[in-house]
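Troubleshooting log. The previous structure file for this entry was overwritten by mistake, so regenerating from the original sequence record. Sequence copied from the archived sheet and checked twice against the printout by T.R.
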Amino acid sequence: MNWKIQVVVIAEDGSQETREIHSIERKDLKPETLGLTLAEGKAILKNIQQIVVQQQVSSGMAPCRDCPDGGKSRRGKGYHDLSLRTVFG
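Regenerated output below.
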C-alpha cells in the first residue's frame, strides 16, 4: 500500500499550489509496521515546516520590498539559504 502526503498552499488571491512532501510504502501489515516510524514522522514534519516558513517569509517580505520613501524596488544583495534551528531539530 502506498500513501502520498501533500500540502496545498492557497494564496490570498485564490491560487493553489500542491506540493508532495512525503511518500510512504508498506508491503505487508505487521504490528511493527503500523503507523509511522519516528524517522518518517520527523521527515514529514521537517518538510511541512520548510513549506510553511518559506510561504510565510515570501508573503511577509513582499510588502517590504519597495522603498517607503521613493516607492522603487530595493536591490537585493543576493539569495542564499540560511539555517534555522528549532526545538524539533
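The mean pLDDT is 83. Archived copy saved in two places this time.
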